[in-house]
User: Which sequence fits this backbone?
Protein backbone atom coordinates (compact mmCIF):
# COMPACT_ATOMS: atom_id res chain seq x y z
CA UNK A 1 0.00 0.00 0.00
CA UNK A 2 1.23 3.46 -0.84
CA UNK A 3 -0.01 5.26 2.25
CA UNK A 4 0.79 4.94 5.95
CA UNK A 5 1.74 1.26 6.11
CA UNK A 6 1.79 1.06 9.91
CA UNK A 7 -1.87 2.15 10.10
CA UNK A 8 -3.15 -1.18 11.45
CA UNK A 9 -0.49 -1.35 14.16
CA UNK A 10 -2.23 1.42 16.12
CA UNK A 11 -5.53 1.68 17.91
CA UNK A 12 -7.60 4.88 17.69
CA UNK A 13 -5.79 6.58 20.56
CA UNK A 14 -2.47 5.60 19.05
CA UNK A 15 -3.39 7.14 15.69
CA UNK A 16 -4.60 10.31 17.41
CA UNK A 17 -1.28 10.57 19.24
CA UNK A 18 0.62 10.33 15.95
CA UNK A 19 -1.50 13.17 14.58
CA UNK A 20 -0.83 15.28 17.68
CA UNK A 21 2.91 14.74 17.30
CA UNK A 22 2.79 15.65 13.63
CA UNK A 23 4.08 12.24 12.53
CA UNK A 24 1.10 11.64 10.24
CA UNK A 25 -1.72 13.84 8.93
CA UNK A 26 -5.46 13.17 9.13
CA UNK A 27 -5.56 12.98 5.33
CA UNK A 28 -2.86 10.31 5.32
CA UNK A 29 -4.85 8.29 7.85
CA UNK A 30 -8.02 8.67 5.81
CA UNK A 31 -6.22 7.55 2.67
CA UNK A 32 -4.87 4.51 4.52
CA UNK A 33 -8.36 3.61 5.75
CA UNK A 34 -9.93 4.06 2.31
CA UNK A 35 -7.25 1.90 0.69
CA UNK A 36 -8.08 -0.92 3.08
CA UNK A 37 -11.82 -0.55 2.54
CA UNK A 38 -11.37 -0.58 -1.24
CA UNK A 39 -9.10 -3.63 -1.06
CA UNK A 40 -11.04 -5.73 1.47
CA UNK A 41 -14.64 -4.64 1.35
CA UNK A 42 -15.53 -6.36 -1.96
CA UNK A 43 -14.86 -9.67 -0.20
CA UNK A 44 -16.41 -8.83 3.18
CA UNK A 45 -19.20 -6.30 2.44
CA UNK A 46 -18.85 -4.34 5.68
CA UNK A 47 -19.04 -0.77 4.32
CA UNK A 48 -22.20 -0.05 2.34
CA UNK A 49 -22.10 3.73 1.98
CA UNK A 50 -18.76 5.43 1.23
CA UNK A 51 -18.57 9.09 2.29
CA UNK A 52 -15.06 9.82 1.08
CA UNK A 53 -15.66 13.23 -0.50
CA UNK A 54 -17.43 14.47 2.62
CA UNK A 55 -14.60 13.19 4.83
CA UNK A 56 -11.90 14.87 2.76
CA UNK A 57 -13.87 18.11 2.77
CA UNK A 58 -14.08 18.10 6.56
CA UNK A 59 -10.35 17.54 6.88
CA UNK A 60 -9.61 20.42 4.49
CA UNK A 61 -11.98 22.66 6.46
CA UNK A 62 -10.05 21.94 9.67
CA UNK A 63 -10.82 19.35 12.31
CA UNK A 64 -11.61 20.19 15.94
CA UNK A 65 -8.73 19.73 18.35
CA UNK A 66 -10.46 16.81 20.06
CA UNK A 67 -8.90 13.79 21.75
CA UNK A 68 -9.39 11.61 18.65
CA UNK A 69 -8.48 14.16 16.01
CA UNK A 70 -7.85 12.61 12.61
CA UNK A 71 -8.97 9.07 13.42
CA UNK A 72 -10.97 7.48 10.55
CA UNK A 73 -14.37 6.27 11.73
CA UNK A 74 -17.44 4.48 10.41
CA UNK A 75 -21.03 4.76 11.64
CA UNK A 76 -23.71 2.11 11.48
CA UNK A 77 -26.42 2.57 8.85
CA UNK A 78 -29.12 2.41 11.50
CA UNK A 79 -30.36 4.95 14.02
CA UNK A 80 -27.72 7.65 13.52
CA UNK A 81 -28.25 10.57 11.15
CA UNK A 82 -25.58 12.42 9.19
CA UNK A 83 -26.94 15.44 7.34
CA UNK A 84 -27.21 14.95 3.60
CA UNK A 85 -26.79 11.16 3.68
CA UNK A 86 -29.43 8.46 3.88
CA UNK A 87 -29.89 6.32 6.95
CA UNK A 88 -31.41 3.25 5.33
CA UNK A 89 -31.87 1.05 8.42
CA UNK A 90 -30.78 -1.73 6.03
CA UNK A 91 -34.13 -1.40 4.26
CA UNK A 92 -35.15 -0.59 0.72
CA UNK A 93 -37.96 1.66 1.93
CA UNK A 94 -35.45 4.06 3.53
CA UNK A 95 -32.80 3.85 0.80
CA UNK A 96 -33.38 7.43 -0.39
CA UNK A 97 -34.24 9.03 2.98
CA UNK A 98 -31.54 11.69 3.26
CA UNK A 99 -31.10 13.10 6.78
CA UNK A 100 -31.83 16.78 7.38
CA UNK A 101 -29.75 16.99 10.55
CA UNK A 102 -26.91 15.32 12.45
CA UNK A 103 -27.65 13.10 15.43
CA UNK A 104 -26.31 14.35 18.75
CA UNK A 105 -23.92 11.40 18.83
CA UNK A 106 -22.60 12.20 15.34
CA UNK A 107 -21.93 15.76 16.48
CA UNK A 108 -19.98 14.44 19.47
CA UNK A 109 -17.88 12.13 17.32
CA UNK A 110 -17.09 15.02 14.99
CA UNK A 111 -16.30 17.33 17.93
CA UNK A 112 -13.83 14.71 19.16
CA UNK A 113 -12.02 15.19 15.85
CA UNK A 114 -12.98 11.88 14.24
CA UNK A 115 -13.31 11.62 10.47
CA UNK A 116 -16.52 9.83 9.50
CA UNK A 117 -16.02 8.40 6.01
CA UNK A 118 -18.73 5.78 5.58
CA UNK A 119 -21.59 3.69 6.93
CA UNK A 120 -21.61 0.00 7.80
CA UNK A 121 -23.87 -2.90 6.92
CA UNK A 122 -26.78 -3.84 9.20
CA UNK A 123 -29.83 -6.13 8.96
CA UNK A 124 -33.16 -4.55 8.13
CA UNK A 125 -34.28 -2.42 11.11
CA UNK A 126 -31.69 -4.25 13.23
CA UNK A 127 -34.19 -7.03 13.81
CA UNK A 128 -31.87 -10.04 13.80
CA UNK A 129 -28.46 -11.18 15.00
CA UNK A 130 -26.91 -11.72 11.61
CA UNK A 131 -26.10 -9.10 8.97
CA UNK A 132 -27.61 -10.32 5.69
CA UNK A 133 -30.02 -7.60 4.49
CA UNK A 134 -31.78 -7.86 1.14
CA UNK A 135 -30.73 -4.27 0.42
CA UNK A 136 -26.97 -4.75 0.63
CA UNK A 137 -26.35 -8.49 0.87
CA UNK A 138 -24.47 -10.53 3.48
CA UNK A 139 -21.60 -9.20 5.57
CA UNK A 140 -18.99 -11.96 5.77
CA UNK A 141 -16.96 -12.86 8.84
CA UNK A 142 -13.22 -12.40 8.15
CA UNK A 143 -12.42 -15.41 10.35
CA UNK A 144 -14.50 -17.61 8.01
CA UNK A 145 -16.31 -16.08 5.01
CA UNK A 146 -19.03 -18.73 5.21
CA UNK A 147 -20.02 -17.64 8.74
CA UNK A 148 -22.10 -14.81 10.12
CA UNK A 149 -20.44 -11.65 11.41
CA UNK A 150 -23.25 -11.33 13.94
CA UNK A 151 -25.79 -8.56 14.09
CA UNK A 152 -27.06 -6.10 14.03
CA UNK A 153 -23.70 -4.27 14.06
CA UNK A 154 -22.08 -6.87 11.82
CA UNK A 155 -20.61 -4.36 9.39
CA UNK A 156 -19.02 -2.41 12.22
CA UNK A 157 -17.39 -5.52 13.66
CA UNK A 158 -16.06 -6.73 10.32
CA UNK A 159 -14.62 -3.30 9.50
CA UNK A 160 -12.65 -3.36 12.76
CA UNK A 161 -11.66 -7.04 12.56
CA UNK A 162 -10.43 -6.55 8.98
CA UNK A 163 -8.29 -3.54 9.90
CA UNK A 164 -10.29 -0.95 7.99
CA UNK A 165 -10.73 1.14 11.14
CA UNK A 166 -9.60 0.70 14.76
CA UNK A 167 -13.10 1.44 16.08
CA UNK A 168 -16.59 1.73 14.62
CA UNK A 169 -19.95 2.94 15.88
CA UNK A 170 -22.43 0.22 16.85
CA UNK A 171 -25.75 -0.10 18.66
CA UNK A 172 -27.31 -2.78 20.84
CA UNK A 173 -31.03 -3.48 21.36
CA UNK A 174 -30.69 -7.13 22.32
CA UNK A 175 -27.00 -7.87 21.94
CA UNK A 176 -26.12 -6.07 18.72
CA UNK A 177 -22.79 -4.69 19.95
CA UNK A 178 -21.77 -7.73 21.97
CA UNK A 179 -22.83 -10.42 19.48
CA UNK A 180 -20.80 -9.10 16.49
CA UNK A 181 -17.88 -8.41 18.82
CA UNK A 182 -18.05 -12.06 19.90
CA UNK A 183 -18.33 -13.36 16.34
CA UNK A 184 -15.38 -11.26 15.13
CA UNK A 185 -12.97 -11.51 18.09
CA UNK A 186 -13.29 -7.93 19.34
CA UNK A 187 -14.19 -5.92 22.43
CA UNK A 188 -17.75 -4.62 22.65
CA UNK A 189 -19.30 -2.70 25.54
CA UNK A 190 -23.01 -1.92 25.78
CA UNK A 191 -23.29 1.08 28.11
CA UNK A 192 -25.85 1.72 30.81
CA UNK A 193 -29.24 2.90 29.60
CA UNK A 194 -29.19 6.69 29.17
CA UNK A 195 -25.39 6.95 29.17
CA UNK A 196 -25.28 8.06 25.52
CA UNK A 197 -28.05 10.32 24.14
CA UNK A 198 -30.30 9.21 21.27
CA UNK A 199 -31.35 12.73 20.22
CA UNK A 200 -32.45 14.85 18.69
CA UNK A 201 -35.19 12.72 17.06
CA UNK A 202 -35.49 10.22 19.92
CA UNK A 203 -35.53 10.33 23.68
CA UNK A 204 -34.81 6.62 23.72
CA UNK A 205 -34.68 3.82 21.18
CA UNK A 206 -36.84 0.70 21.42
CA UNK A 207 -38.25 2.17 24.64
CA UNK A 208 -34.92 1.94 26.41
CA UNK A 209 -33.82 -1.47 25.14
CA UNK A 210 -31.28 -0.04 22.71
CA UNK A 211 -27.99 1.74 23.43
CA UNK A 212 -25.29 3.22 21.20
CA UNK A 213 -21.54 2.86 21.54
CA UNK A 214 -18.70 1.22 19.57
CA UNK A 215 -16.86 -1.99 18.73
CA UNK A 216 -13.09 -1.74 19.21
CA UNK A 217 -9.91 -3.75 19.23
CA UNK A 218 -8.68 -2.32 22.55
CA UNK A 219 -10.36 -1.60 25.86
CA UNK A 220 -8.86 1.87 26.09
CA UNK A 221 -10.40 2.91 22.76
CA UNK A 222 -13.82 1.90 24.02
CA UNK A 223 -13.27 3.96 27.17
CA UNK A 224 -12.04 7.01 25.24
CA UNK A 225 -14.99 6.90 22.89
CA UNK A 226 -17.35 6.56 25.84
CA UNK A 227 -15.83 9.74 27.26
CA UNK A 228 -16.39 11.48 23.93
CA UNK A 229 -20.00 10.35 23.63
CA UNK A 230 -21.41 10.14 27.16
CA UNK A 231 -23.52 12.66 28.98
CA UNK A 232 -27.04 14.02 28.67
CA UNK A 233 -28.21 16.41 26.00
CA UNK A 234 -30.99 18.98 26.26
CA UNK A 235 -34.40 17.36 26.43
CA UNK A 236 -33.29 13.83 27.30
CA UNK A 237 -35.99 12.01 29.29
CA UNK A 238 -33.39 10.53 31.66
CA UNK A 239 -29.67 9.83 31.85
CA UNK A 240 -27.28 7.44 33.51
CA UNK A 241 -25.64 8.25 36.85
CA UNK A 242 -22.68 10.61 36.29
CA UNK A 243 -19.16 9.35 36.92
CA UNK A 244 -16.22 10.98 38.65
CA UNK A 245 -13.35 11.64 36.25
CA UNK A 246 -13.18 9.88 32.91
CA UNK A 247 -13.75 6.33 31.73
CA UNK A 248 -10.31 6.29 30.15
CA UNK A 249 -8.78 6.85 33.59
CA UNK A 250 -10.39 3.59 34.72
CA UNK A 251 -8.40 1.53 32.21
CA UNK A 252 -5.49 -0.07 34.05
CA UNK A 253 -6.83 0.66 37.52
CA UNK A 254 -7.02 -2.45 39.72
CA UNK A 255 -10.63 -3.66 39.87
CA UNK A 256 -10.22 -4.97 43.40
CA UNK A 257 -11.28 -8.43 44.45
CA UNK A 258 -14.55 -8.90 42.59
CA UNK A 259 -17.39 -11.29 43.37
CA UNK A 260 -17.98 -12.90 39.98
CA UNK A 261 -20.86 -15.28 39.38
CA UNK A 262 -20.85 -17.46 36.29
CA UNK A 263 -23.41 -19.49 34.39
CA UNK A 264 -23.43 -21.61 31.24
CA UNK A 265 -27.21 -22.01 31.18
CA UNK A 266 -29.18 -19.39 29.23
CA UNK A 267 -32.46 -18.10 30.67
CA UNK A 268 -34.25 -20.11 27.96
CA UNK A 269 -32.67 -23.35 29.21
CA UNK A 270 -31.64 -24.31 25.67
CA UNK A 271 -28.44 -26.30 25.00
CA UNK A 272 -25.09 -24.50 24.78
CA UNK A 273 -22.26 -25.59 22.50
CA UNK A 274 -19.40 -27.30 24.40
CA UNK A 275 -16.92 -24.71 23.10
CA UNK A 276 -18.95 -21.90 24.66
CA UNK A 277 -19.19 -23.83 27.93
CA UNK A 278 -15.44 -24.49 27.89
CA UNK A 279 -14.79 -20.80 27.28
CA UNK A 280 -16.73 -19.85 30.42
CA UNK A 281 -14.97 -22.38 32.61
CA UNK A 282 -11.55 -21.30 31.33
CA UNK A 283 -12.42 -17.65 31.95
CA UNK A 284 -13.75 -18.43 35.44
CA UNK A 285 -10.40 -20.08 36.23
CA UNK A 286 -8.57 -17.05 34.87
CA UNK A 287 -10.62 -14.76 37.09
CA UNK A 288 -9.76 -16.91 40.10
CA UNK A 289 -6.07 -16.71 39.17
CA UNK A 290 -6.43 -12.93 39.09
CA UNK A 291 -7.68 -13.02 42.68
CA UNK A 292 -11.43 -12.74 42.21
CA UNK A 293 -14.07 -14.74 44.07
CA UNK A 294 -15.88 -16.96 41.56
CA UNK A 295 -18.97 -19.06 42.05
CA UNK A 296 -21.70 -20.54 39.87
CA UNK A 297 -24.93 -18.55 40.16
CA UNK A 298 -27.42 -16.60 38.05
CA UNK A 299 -30.32 -14.20 38.67
CA UNK A 300 -33.82 -15.68 38.78
CA UNK A 301 -36.61 -14.03 36.81
CA UNK A 302 -39.73 -14.91 34.81
CA UNK A 303 -38.15 -15.62 31.42
CA UNK A 304 -41.30 -16.38 29.43
CA UNK A 305 -43.09 -13.21 30.55
CA UNK A 306 -39.96 -11.14 29.93
CA UNK A 307 -39.49 -12.63 26.45
CA UNK A 308 -43.09 -11.97 25.45
CA UNK A 309 -42.82 -8.37 26.67
CA UNK A 310 -39.60 -7.81 24.73
CA UNK A 311 -41.21 -9.08 21.52
CA UNK A 312 -44.17 -6.75 22.09
CA UNK A 313 -41.85 -3.73 22.46
CA UNK A 314 -39.83 -4.60 19.35
CA UNK A 315 -42.87 -5.43 17.23
CA UNK A 316 -44.59 -2.21 18.28
CA UNK A 317 -41.54 -0.17 17.34
CA UNK A 318 -41.27 -1.94 13.98
CA UNK A 319 -44.91 -1.21 13.25
CA UNK A 320 -44.38 2.43 14.21
CA UNK A 321 -41.38 2.69 11.86
CA UNK A 322 -43.36 1.40 8.91
CA UNK A 323 -46.23 3.72 9.73
CA UNK A 324 -43.86 6.69 9.91
CA UNK A 325 -42.36 5.80 6.54
CA UNK A 326 -45.82 5.44 5.03
CA UNK A 327 -46.66 8.94 6.24
CA UNK A 328 -43.44 10.32 4.73
CA UNK A 329 -44.06 8.57 1.40
CA UNK A 330 -47.77 9.40 1.34
CA UNK A 331 -48.73 5.81 0.53
CA UNK A 332 -49.04 2.36 2.08
CA UNK A 333 -46.04 0.04 2.15
CA UNK A 334 -46.72 -3.43 0.77
CA UNK A 335 -45.45 -6.76 2.05
CA UNK A 336 -42.93 -7.22 -0.75
CA UNK A 337 -41.10 -3.98 0.03
CA UNK A 338 -39.61 -5.27 3.28
CA UNK A 339 -38.23 -8.61 4.39
CA UNK A 340 -40.75 -11.19 5.52
CA UNK A 341 -39.67 -11.24 9.17
CA UNK A 342 -39.83 -7.43 9.23
CA UNK A 343 -43.35 -7.51 7.78
CA UNK A 344 -44.51 -10.08 10.32
CA UNK A 345 -43.02 -8.03 13.16
CA UNK A 346 -44.65 -4.81 11.93
CA UNK A 347 -48.04 -6.43 11.42
CA UNK A 348 -47.88 -7.93 14.89
CA UNK A 349 -46.96 -4.55 16.33
CA UNK A 350 -49.84 -2.79 14.62
CA UNK A 351 -52.25 -5.29 16.17
CA UNK A 352 -51.04 -4.61 19.70
CA UNK A 353 -53.25 -2.46 21.89
CA UNK A 354 -52.01 0.44 23.97
CA UNK A 355 -52.84 -1.64 27.04
CA UNK A 356 -50.62 -4.52 25.84
CA UNK A 357 -47.80 -2.09 25.15
CA UNK A 358 -47.99 -0.56 28.63
CA UNK A 359 -48.18 -3.99 30.20
CA UNK A 360 -45.02 -4.99 28.31
CA UNK A 361 -43.16 -1.95 29.64
CA UNK A 362 -44.32 -2.75 33.15
CA UNK A 363 -43.12 -6.34 32.73
CA UNK A 364 -39.63 -5.19 31.75
CA UNK A 365 -39.54 -2.84 34.73
CA UNK A 366 -40.56 -5.75 36.95
CA UNK A 367 -37.81 -7.87 35.40
CA UNK A 368 -35.30 -5.21 36.42
CA UNK A 369 -36.62 -5.39 39.99
CA UNK A 370 -36.16 -9.17 39.95
CA UNK A 371 -32.60 -9.02 38.61
CA UNK A 372 -31.14 -6.00 40.43
CA UNK A 373 -30.76 -7.65 43.88
CA UNK A 374 -28.46 -10.27 42.34
CA UNK A 375 -25.95 -7.51 41.58
CA UNK A 376 -25.99 -6.35 45.18
CA UNK A 377 -24.46 -9.71 46.14
CA UNK A 378 -22.30 -10.14 43.01
CA UNK A 379 -20.23 -7.57 41.15
CA UNK A 380 -20.36 -9.37 37.83
CA UNK A 381 -22.13 -12.13 35.96
CA UNK A 382 -20.03 -14.13 33.49
CA UNK A 383 -21.57 -16.23 30.72
CA UNK A 384 -21.02 -16.94 27.03
CA UNK A 385 -22.22 -14.20 24.70
CA UNK A 386 -23.81 -16.79 22.41
CA UNK A 387 -25.10 -20.34 22.60
CA UNK A 388 -22.96 -21.32 19.59
CA UNK A 389 -19.89 -20.09 17.77
CA UNK A 390 -20.70 -18.05 14.62
CA UNK A 391 -23.36 -19.90 12.59
CA UNK A 392 -23.26 -20.26 8.78
CA UNK A 393 -24.61 -17.47 6.60
CA UNK A 394 -28.17 -18.32 5.62
CA UNK A 395 -28.89 -20.06 8.92
CA UNK A 396 -31.11 -17.12 9.89
CA UNK A 397 -33.16 -16.35 6.77
CA UNK A 398 -35.30 -13.24 7.23
CA UNK A 399 -37.19 -14.05 4.02
CA UNK A 400 -38.24 -17.49 5.26
CA UNK A 401 -41.98 -18.16 5.52
CA UNK A 402 -41.18 -20.86 8.09
CA UNK A 403 -41.36 -18.43 10.99
CA UNK A 404 -41.38 -21.11 13.67
CA UNK A 405 -38.16 -22.60 12.29
CA UNK A 406 -36.61 -19.13 12.06
CA UNK A 407 -37.44 -18.37 15.71
CA UNK A 408 -36.13 -21.76 16.85
CA UNK A 409 -32.86 -21.13 15.06
CA UNK A 410 -32.65 -17.60 16.45
CA UNK A 411 -33.14 -18.86 20.00
CA UNK A 412 -30.57 -21.63 19.47
CA UNK A 413 -27.93 -19.01 18.63
CA UNK A 414 -28.43 -16.14 21.09
CA UNK A 415 -30.05 -15.81 24.47
CA UNK A 416 -27.67 -14.44 27.12
CA UNK A 417 -27.45 -10.79 26.04
CA UNK A 418 -31.02 -9.48 25.89
CA UNK A 419 -31.70 -9.49 29.62
CA UNK A 420 -29.32 -6.56 30.10
CA UNK A 421 -31.09 -4.53 27.46
CA UNK A 422 -34.29 -5.00 29.44
CA UNK A 423 -32.66 -4.00 32.73
CA UNK A 424 -30.50 -1.27 31.21
CA UNK A 425 -27.32 -2.63 32.83
CA UNK A 426 -23.89 -2.32 31.20
CA UNK A 427 -22.56 -5.49 29.63
CA UNK A 428 -19.48 -6.34 27.57
CA UNK A 429 -18.15 -9.02 25.23
CA UNK A 430 -14.47 -9.83 25.81
CA UNK A 431 -12.49 -11.84 23.19
CA UNK A 432 -10.87 -14.52 25.31
CA UNK A 433 -11.51 -17.79 23.46
CA UNK A 434 -11.17 -19.30 19.98
CA UNK A 435 -12.44 -22.72 18.90
CA UNK A 436 -10.06 -25.38 17.50
CA UNK A 437 -11.11 -24.29 13.99
CA UNK A 438 -10.22 -20.66 14.85
CA UNK A 439 -13.67 -19.15 15.36
CA UNK A 440 -13.95 -16.45 18.05
CA UNK A 441 -16.11 -17.01 21.15
CA UNK A 442 -16.79 -13.92 23.24
CA UNK A 443 -17.30 -13.93 27.01
CA UNK A 444 -20.11 -11.83 28.43
CA UNK A 445 -19.53 -9.84 31.63
CA UNK A 446 -22.45 -7.83 32.99
CA UNK A 447 -22.48 -5.50 35.99
CA UNK A 448 -24.87 -3.38 38.03
CA UNK A 449 -26.59 -0.30 36.67
CA UNK A 450 -24.11 2.52 36.05
CA UNK A 451 -21.04 0.33 36.59
CA UNK A 452 -19.19 0.75 33.28
CA UNK A 453 -16.07 1.86 35.18
CA UNK A 454 -15.92 -1.50 36.97
CA UNK A 455 -16.34 -3.37 33.69
CA UNK A 456 -13.55 -1.36 32.08
CA UNK A 457 -11.20 -2.05 34.98
CA UNK A 458 -11.83 -5.78 34.73
CA UNK A 459 -11.62 -5.73 30.93
CA UNK A 460 -8.22 -4.04 31.01
CA UNK A 461 -7.02 -6.57 33.58
CA UNK A 462 -8.17 -9.42 31.31
CA UNK A 463 -6.64 -7.72 28.28
CA UNK A 464 -3.29 -7.59 30.05
CA UNK A 465 -3.54 -11.19 31.22
CA UNK A 466 -4.65 -12.60 27.84
CA UNK A 467 -3.71 -10.03 25.15
CA UNK A 468 -5.87 -10.21 22.05
CA UNK A 469 -5.01 -7.06 20.11
CA UNK A 470 -2.67 -8.80 17.69
CA UNK A 471 -4.81 -11.87 17.12
CA UNK A 472 -6.12 -11.19 13.61
CA UNK A 473 -8.01 -13.13 10.94
CA UNK A 474 -6.07 -14.25 7.89
CA UNK A 475 -7.46 -11.90 5.25
CA UNK A 476 -5.80 -13.84 2.43
CA UNK A 477 -8.00 -16.87 3.17
CA UNK A 478 -11.43 -16.77 1.51
CA UNK A 479 -12.94 -19.25 3.98
Assistant:
Amino acid sequence: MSTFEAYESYDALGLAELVRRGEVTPMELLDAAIERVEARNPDLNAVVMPMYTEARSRIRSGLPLGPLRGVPFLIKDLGLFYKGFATTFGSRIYADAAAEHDSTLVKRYLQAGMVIFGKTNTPEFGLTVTTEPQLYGPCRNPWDRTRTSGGSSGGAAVAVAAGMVPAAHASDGGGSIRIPASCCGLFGLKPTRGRIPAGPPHGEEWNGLSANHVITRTVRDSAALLDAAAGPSAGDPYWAPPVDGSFLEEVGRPPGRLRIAFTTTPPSGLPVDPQCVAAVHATARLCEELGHIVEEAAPAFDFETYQKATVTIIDSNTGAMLSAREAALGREITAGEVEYITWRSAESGKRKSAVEFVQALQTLHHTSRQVAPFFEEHDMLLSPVLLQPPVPLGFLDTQSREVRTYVQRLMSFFGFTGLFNATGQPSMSVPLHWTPDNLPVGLLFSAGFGQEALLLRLASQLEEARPWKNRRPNLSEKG
User: Anything to note?
Assistant: The chain is about 35% helix and 15% strand. The mean pLDDT is 97. The domain at 7-465 is CATH 3.90.1300.10 (Amidase signature (AS) enzymes). Residues 217 and 477 are 21 Å apart (CA to CA).
